């Protein structure tokens, strides 16, 4: 009986546990074409770029062709325009993070776009989808938003997994965004500015706040930066841009910590930004705290895997010796 217990313990501890789960993604071949209105600027291809007046009503559309042998469900959503933290423009209904956001007086074009939200497209066919836009009644130069067209694959291959493990099906959403740019007759001056500097501990990046406060796209932003410590010693320096910012948006533009060491302390970020042939200079203080350094170290510290071995652990040998002694003692008493 004791011999059987010992064997069962060893077998349970030494037997491997296998997890084998896989999933297969199926392509959804769709062709999406903008249907331009009369107000479209002829030279622009691939997105809506219209010359409009405040209060106008515009009807645009998209033609979606399903080249698959089965019907496809398509979701359509109006979107606002945001500036990506490292520059450039992205389209989504709502983004509100420390790294990118709309300013309070921003025009949310998604509220002025009317579109059917869900469409089923039969196999091997095309559907024209009308989209209505009311131009906001504001004094501005550019209003920017977009249309997001998404397909959601519910197909997945689920395989058997060992008892006690989880089964998964991977669903994939594919999103195609088309910009909607409304060009108003008024021309505005740039309202670009810099804000506070700071440090992002989980990625070891210095950032500077950037604001585009005008109802216009601010393009061709570029410049130089330099980080020094409290002794005036240069830690690192570099260049950035050019990139664009969406109207009435704010970002925290990041710079990687380009130095071999990361120490807590007080630092200065010096900036020189060129906008429309105008140079903007700023010098902002920021502090790296000891907990910032510790957090980054914990995130980047390599995990050393334990070496695999086929040897029986020492404690198991000890357990076996004890059990063997018990067996021998019992057999001796029977004699």
From TrEMBL:
Segments forming domain WxL Interacting Protein host binding: 168-297
Coiled coil: none
Database matches in SUPFAM superfamilies: beta-Galactosidase/glucuronidase domain
Domain called WxL Interacting Protein peptidoglycan binding: residue spans: 32-150
Name of the molecule in the record: DUF916 domain-containing protein
Record bears the keyword Membrane: yes
One Pfam family recorded for the sequence: WxLIP_PGBD
Entry's transmembrane regions: 315-332
Keywords from the UniProt entry: Membrane, Transmembrane, Transmembrane helix
């Amino acid at each position: 009986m004791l011999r059987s217990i010992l064997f069962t313990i060893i077998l349970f501890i030494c037997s491997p546990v296998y997890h084998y789960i896989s999933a297969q993604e199926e392509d959804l071949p769709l062709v999406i074409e903008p249907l331009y209105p009369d107000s479209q600027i002829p030279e622009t291809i691939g997105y809506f770029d219209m010359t409009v007046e405040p209060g106008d009503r515009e009807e645009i559309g998209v033609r979606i062709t399903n080249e698959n042998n089965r019907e496809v469900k398509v979701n359509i959503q109006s979107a606002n325009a945001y500036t990506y933290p490292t520059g450039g423009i992205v389209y989504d209904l709502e983004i509100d993070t420390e790294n990118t956001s709309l300013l309070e007086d921003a025009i949310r074009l998604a509220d002025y776009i009317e579109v059917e939200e869900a469409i089923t497209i039969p196999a091997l066919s095309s559907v024209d989808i009308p989209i209505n836009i009311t131009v906001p009644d504001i004094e501005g130069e550019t209003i920017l938003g977009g249309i997001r067209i998404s397909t959601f694959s519910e197909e997945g291959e689920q395989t058997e997994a060992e008892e006690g493990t989880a089964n998964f099906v991977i669903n994939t959403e594919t999103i195609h965004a088309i910009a909607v740019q409304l060009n108003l007759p008024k021309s505005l001056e740039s309202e670009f500015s810099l804000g506070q500097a700071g440090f992002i501990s989980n990625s070891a990046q210095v950032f500077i706040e950037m604001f585009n406060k005008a109802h216009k796209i601010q393009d061709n932003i570029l410049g130089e930066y330099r980080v020094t410590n409290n002794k005036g010693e240069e830690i690192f320096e570099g260049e950035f841009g050019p990139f664009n910012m969406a109207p009435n948006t704010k970002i925290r533009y990041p710079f990687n910590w380009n130095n071999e060491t990361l120490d807590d302390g007080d630092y200065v970020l010096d900036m020189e930004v060129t906008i429309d042939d105008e140079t903007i200079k700023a010098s902002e203080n920021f502090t790296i705290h000891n907990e910032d350094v510790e957090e980054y170290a914990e995130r980047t510290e390599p995990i050393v895997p334990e070496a695999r071995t086929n040897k029986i652990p020492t404690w198991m040998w000890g357990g076996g010796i004890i059990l063997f002694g018990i067996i021998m003692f019992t057999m001796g008493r029977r004699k």
